[in-house]
Q: What sequence folds into this?
């Protein structure tokens, strides 16, 4: 009888511990969000096949994307798997006028703050989408070094093409979810 109780307790503990574990891939990486009405982020993350790259970020499958439209041109966006990107995707679709700054970026102050996980980026790449502070959305269109800290949101794919779309003027852009 005592053995049966011990075995039962061990089985219950094993079930509790296995239900609480989280794989490292679900804590970091790049994701793009698809239609949250048909599935949740957690369901999507559990079905994602990812590959690890040196900075512990992983890129996910083609099924999860967002896009940005600039001057009628659409560009795919890959979003990081973090709370900021998840909160950002929940704001979409969103059409905003982004203001020019420093000849290398466009920015827009969001109507509400997003969660942050700032880090010293060091090197900005054209196409980076980041959050400065907790409410300033930034789209970079040139490569440069920086000492500022940002929270990563995502990257525009084929970013070299957006440079010709952006200049020293404010621009109207649309961010939206895609499937």
A:
């Amino acid at each position: 009888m005592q053995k049966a109780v011990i075995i039962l307790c061990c089985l219950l503990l094993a079930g509790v511990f296995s239900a609480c574990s989280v794989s490292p891939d679900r804590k970091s990486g790049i994701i793009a969000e698809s239609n949250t009405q048909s599935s949740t982020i957690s369901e999507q993350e559990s079905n994602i096949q990812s590959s690890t790259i040196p900075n512990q970020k992983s890129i996910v499958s083609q099924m999860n994307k967002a896009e940005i439209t600039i001057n009628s041109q659409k560009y795919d966006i890959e979003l990081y798997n973090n709370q900021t990107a998840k909160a950002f995707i929940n704001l979409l679709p969103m059409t905003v006028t982004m203001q020019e700054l420093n000849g290398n970026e466009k920015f827009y102050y969001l109507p509400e703050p997003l969660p942050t996980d700032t880090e010293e980026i060091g090197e900005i790449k054209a196409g980076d989408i980041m959050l400065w502070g907790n409410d300033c959305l930034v789209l970079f269109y040139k490569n440069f070094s920086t000492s500022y800290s940002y929270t990563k949101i995502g990257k525009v794919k084929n970013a070299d093409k957006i440079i010709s779309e952006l200049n020293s003027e404010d621009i109207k852009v649309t961010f939206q979810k895609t499937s």
